[in-house]
Fold this protein.
Amino acid sequence: MTDTIKSDGAAWDPEEHARNAATRSAALADVPLASPAPRGGIRGVLEHRYLLTLLVKREVTARYTGSFLGMVWSYITPLTQFFMYIFIFALLLGRGKAIEHFAIHVFAALMVVTLFTETIQAGTRSITRNSSLLQKSAMPREMFPVASLLVSIYHLWPEFVILAIALVYTGWSPDLTAVAAGVLGYAVIIVFSLALGLMLSVSQVFLRDTSQMVNVINNFIRFGVPMMYPYSLVASRFHGHTDLYLANPIADAVLLVQRCFWVPTTSDQQETIALHMPDHLFTRGLIALAAALVLLVVAQKVFARFENKIPERL
């Protein structure tokens, strides 16, 4: 048989070619296969920040599509709520006489409650609402509940603007302790909301009644935290047995935010703290934050456990 000539002029050896092919196959066999699926978890979401930004912009734009005033409604709605609380509590019920600047007390708490309720409501439906996008794009599925949280935070800024105007008018004079309380309070509610949003988003895929149960629970949250009433009322009615009440992370977050915004507007801050704030508030807040972080880890594991079954259920 005539030998085939290689391009370099040397004779082609079939046996040598077979040996080289076998060597290349063995080398490729040792190379680990990369998974086509994107990295999951919060880390995977952070690695896809550009997609997360696009998803948040998409959610914000969709909320005001076809609206004449657009983002102006983000200021009108909380502003009307603030004036309503001034009228009802300060003028109609007369609580402004017993509790100084009670409208700020209510509005500061309302901001925390609104952030929580909007996050878990949107987070619960985030996967089922974006089912078509989820099946067409390779992205971490946790991105949808995280985007719901960021959208809620984005719509919190108009409320901060309105609150800031009221704080300037009432002579807000905070210290580092008050600022630390506000940061801790929002850290608690953000982590707690994200953890529940992750778990509820998976639950909604397998049990469509989850969103209805969330709506019912949210109706009780406003009355389960010291918003419409001061904490001192709870302490006096339960005669010091408030551990179960303060075991609620939302209540701790509300009290911390009130410590930041409402307490510095009062004429005697030390008296306000003694009368209307629980003992060891920062310790309770740190415990609540630690519990929320543990819950976030558990929520991530639950999400990962059922993540592969989501596409077939959608």
In short: The longest helix spans residues 176-206. Residues 31-37 have pLDDT under 50 and may be disordered. The chain has 17 helices and no strands.
